[in-house]
Design brief:
Blueprint: H1 11-31, E1 63-80, E2 90-106, E3 115-117, E4 123-128, E5 132-133, E6 137-138, E7 144-150, H2 152-161, H3 167-183, H4 187-205, E8 210-215
Parallel strand pairs: 4-8
Antiparallel strand pairs: 1-2, 2-5, 2-6, 2-7, 3-4
């Protein structure tokens, strides 16, 4: 019996298949860098469409920054539901925070009566206000979420709220903890001593032999 010859696919079926196969080969070659001259169709392009920086205001500063402290801590923030297991509702975040706090003396608060100079301009007395702490500046390069565990409902809520893990909350807590640590670290006293030394050195260089600088 004569052998049956294979039936060919119609051209309108075989042509799209052939084109799709060629396209797949080209895409794979570009992705695997088999053809250096062929651009990668999966390559990403980053475009910065941010608006120009707007200067809102300029403030004259009379602060003398006399000391700066660098701090680091790990924030362990755990939220648990009262009647549901953590796998359903609750989240725990470990956040490594690194930040600095500056201590300064506001020389603009030194009144006219706070500076006394002798008639021969050989002695001077200066009364300074107490040092103050500036705001905590978290280092974005050294601060990061180390680990995060979230329940099912929390993951769903984060997805729809656009605020996964609520990083702002741990950043605020870290800033507050660093601020409290700076308050009790002796940074203020160190800043006051540095300011007194700087003023004494300055006035001595101007010819004053006796310089009394006190705080309070």
């Amino acid at each position: 019996m004569p052998a049956h010859s294979g039936r060919r696919l119609p051209w309108y079926v075989s042509l799209p298949i052939t084109l799709a196969a060629i396209a797949a080969v080209l895409v794979a070659s570009a992705s695997l860098h088999l053809l250096p001259g062929l651009p990668d169709p999966f390559a990403e392009k980053t475009t910065d469409r941010s608006q120009p920086v707007l200067l809102r205001s300029i403030q004259d500063m009379s602060r003398y920054t006399a000391a700066s402290g660098n701090f680091q801590l790990v924030v362990d923030l755990d939220h648990e539901a009262a009647f549901l297991p953590p796998g359903l509702l609750g989240h725990r975040t470990l956040y490594v925070a690194a930040g600095s706090v500056e201590a300064y003396v506001d020389l603009g608060k030194v009144s006219g009566s706070g500076v006394s100079v002798s008639a021969d301009r050989r002695s001077a007395t200066i009364s300074l206000p107490h040092a103050q702490l500036g705001q905590v500046a978290l280092d974005p390069k050294q601060s990061y979420i180390y680990s995060q565990e979230r329940g099912l409902f929390d993951r769903i809520g984060d997805f729809f709220s656009g605020n996964p893990g609520n990083q702002q909350q741990v950043e605020q807590l870290a800033s507050q903890r660093i601020q409290n640590a700076a308050q009790s670290s002796g940074l203020l006293e160190h800043a006051e001593q540095n300011t007194k030394g700087a003023l004494q050195q300055l006035l001595h260089s101007l010819g004053f032999t006796t310089v009394d600088v006190h705080v309070g």
